[in-house]
Amino acid sequence: MTQSTTTHRAPTRPGILVGLKAEAQLIRGVFPHAAIAASGATSAGAQREANRLAACGADCLLSFGLAAGLDPALPPGTIVIPSAVQAWGNVWPSEPTLRHILGGEQAGVISGPLLHSDQVVLQAQHKADLFAATHCAALDMESGFLARAAHEAGLPFAVLRVVCDPATRSLPPITACVLSPDGGLQIGLLLRSLLRHPSQIGGLISLGRDAGLARKAMLRFLHEQATRPAFQQLTARTTLG
User: What is the pTM of this model?
Assistant: First the structure.
């Protein structure tokens, strides 16, 4: 089912949903006064925080952070500002004004739809199957909940994600369970898993390298947009009550 979209005035009080504490810290440097919530990379956390942001007085909802690539042509560091989010059989169009403010028309930005998943997708073959079925550019675990909360609250939303793990790479199994509920790392669990299965180390090193590239690409892109008046207006308002 495709949901209709409505044109809104340029917003000034964003509520921002991310997956991890590291993403929240990164975004806080660009949006110092926004309401920012981290899901902890869990479905329950994403649903809870998306609903909380929708009720906090924000006049728009934004989803930021890392994403898994589904399109094999997209390398780590690719910026995705999707035209829509697909989740649970629904298609929620992102708001055109917000997409424009975030830089959705800039060169190199991917505008294809984003797919929501309730689980971490680890295997390259699974990514290939999802791409063949949906033609979505990338995948994350927060944007579906944010899009649904925005639709239910009558708020505009948009998404800015950066590809971290490319479509052609499988992730080590530990990445599915190493995050703590607050979006940090469970160091003890990580070390125990690596001691039992040291073959995961190479995959974690590659993932860490690509995550670093993705975060740098996100920061570089956001700082480029920060010279634009509409973006400045979105980032400069006071904290929500």
Answer: 0.84
